[in-house]
């Protein structure tokens, strides 16, 4: 009789577990909620997840058939969204076309996810395999593991100029005349990209010419005819002013040569131009001349490709950076980028997270996004403002803000559970205990894989 009772009880427990699984309801109790909208964290509230969606938020929620997790005050924030990255061409200490394989792309999407990044926008360096295999479509729809991949397809650069061919940029269109832009834009438009990417820069005099105004105006014109927005890599204030005047939608890097002026700020605000500062790129450009405070942090080291840590910590590499003629220029560019971000943010212009991670070995995928948050705070944003830049604002840039970017009833349950509150210290975004994608736990963070 006792044996039968035990069996019945066990069967009841199993039935309850299966019932919970079938209903796929999870009730997170006693969380500190940062919802991504910029408001103060909400302490000791509850979140009910049903399937892949947030069903309710509020204190004292009850749901009899849900799996209940009491988080004891731990912080939940939306998964990060990075609106400027590169994937696939980076492997070990190289950036080459042959690295661009399905296996490598999926591994990097996994890495972004481990670091709490739910969606990424690859800015103009994707290759035909991504589209011909259906990998982009499956990833963007959340059917593949890892961060969801959004794309700018094949970008536009200058003949014998930027972007460098040595960075696996051989699929970038390089029109010599405005007339060439039309069929090339047709090819890009067929891919249904999130944005169109172009490069307008001479890389501090490395190249004799930049993409000319008559060609980049044609790129903007043809993209807009097809209802596509245009993002540009740039560096100089003069280029930013002309590009904004000519209809550019997204500035994809910091302005780094001069302080932005009121004329540009007014034009950007009037036209709704988005600013993606990629501060981490500019710090990475010079910081390894010394050993930054995070150089031995496991959270950083785990993000690196094999061989990169040994390269950047070698004395020879550090000396090469420190003694390079352009070292002071790189330091000054970073400091100008910080200053300009504060001015642009204070002017009420939409700022979104992006890092250029994955474009080269120094720009670590995953860690760069968390470093970017720290640098935005260093520039003058509050931690909560920086988080909004990395969640709600970036979702707006990708035009996925109806589903992602904030934690609200009816939105997809993409979020990170943190051990400590980043409103107190922005570095606490690195205390990842769990990553959820569409209502399911998909990672316990990068360090859990040690």
From TrEMBL:
Protein name listed in UniProt: Imidazolonepropionase
GO MF terms, alphabetically ordered: hydrolase activity, acting on carbon-nitrogen (but not peptide) bonds
PANTHER family assigned: ALPHA-D-RIBOSE 1-METHYLPHOSPHONATE 5-TRIPHOSPHATE DIPHOSPHATASE
Matches recorded under PROSITE patterns: PROKAR_LIPOPROTEIN
Species of origin: Filimonas lacunae
Amidohydrolase-related domain location: 75-442
A Pfam short name: Amidohydro_1
């Amino acid at each position: 009789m006792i044996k039968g009772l035990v069996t019945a009880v066990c069967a009841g427990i199993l039935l309850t577990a299966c019932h919970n699984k079938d209903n796929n309801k999870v009730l997170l109790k006693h969380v500190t909620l940062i919802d991504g909208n910029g408001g103060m964290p909400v302490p000791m509230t509850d979140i009910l997840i049903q399937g892949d969606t947030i069903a309710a938020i509020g204190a004292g929620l009850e749901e009899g058939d849900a799996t209940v997790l009491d988080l004891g005050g731990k912080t939940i924030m939306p998964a990060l969204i990075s609106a400027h990255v590169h994937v696939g061409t980076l492997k070990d200490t190289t950036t080459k076309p042959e690295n661009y394989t399905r296996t490598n792309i999926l591994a990097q999407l996994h890495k972004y996810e481990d670091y709490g990044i739910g969606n990424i926008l690859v800015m103009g360096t994707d290759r035909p395999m991504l589209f011909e295999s259906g990998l982009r479509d499956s990833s963007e729809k959340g059917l593949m593991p890892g961060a969801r991949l959004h794309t700018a397809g094949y970008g536009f650069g200058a003949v014998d100029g930027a972007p460098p061919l040595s960075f696996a940029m051989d699929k970038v269109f390089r029109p010599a005349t405005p007339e060439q832009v039309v069929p090339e834009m047709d090819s890009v438009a067929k891919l249904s990209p999130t944005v169109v990417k172009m490069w307008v820069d001479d890389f501090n005099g490395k190249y004799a010419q930049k993409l000319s105004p008559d060609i980049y105006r044609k790129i903007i014109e043809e993209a807009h005819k097809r209802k596509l927005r245009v993002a540009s890599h740039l560096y100089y204030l003069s280029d930013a002013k002309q590009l904004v005047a000519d209809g550019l939608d997204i500035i994809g890097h910091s302005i780094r040569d001069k302080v932005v002026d009121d004329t540009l700020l007014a034009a950007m605000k009037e036209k709704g131009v988005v600013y993606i500062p990629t501060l981490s790129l500019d710090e990475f450009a010079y910081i390894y001349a010394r050993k930054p405070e995070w150089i031995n942090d496991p959270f950083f080291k785990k993000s690196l490709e094999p061989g990169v840590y040994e390269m950047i910590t070698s004395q020879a590499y550090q000396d090469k950076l420190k003694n390079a003629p352009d070292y002071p220029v790189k330091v000054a560019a970073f400091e100008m980028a910080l200053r300009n971000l504060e001015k642009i943010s204070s002017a009420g212009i939409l700022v979104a997270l992006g890092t250029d991670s994955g474009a080269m070995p120094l720009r670590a995928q995953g860690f760069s996004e968390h470093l970017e948050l720290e640098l935005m705070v260093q520039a003058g944003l509050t931690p909560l403002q920086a988080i909004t830049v990395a969640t709600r604002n970036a979702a707006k840039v990708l035009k996925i803000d109806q589903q992602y970017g904030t934690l609200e009833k009816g939105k997809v349950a993409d979020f990170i559970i943190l051990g400590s509150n980043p409103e107190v210290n922005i570095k606490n975004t690195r205390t990842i205990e769990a990553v959820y994608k569409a209502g399911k736990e998909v990672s316990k963070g990068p360090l859990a894989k040690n």
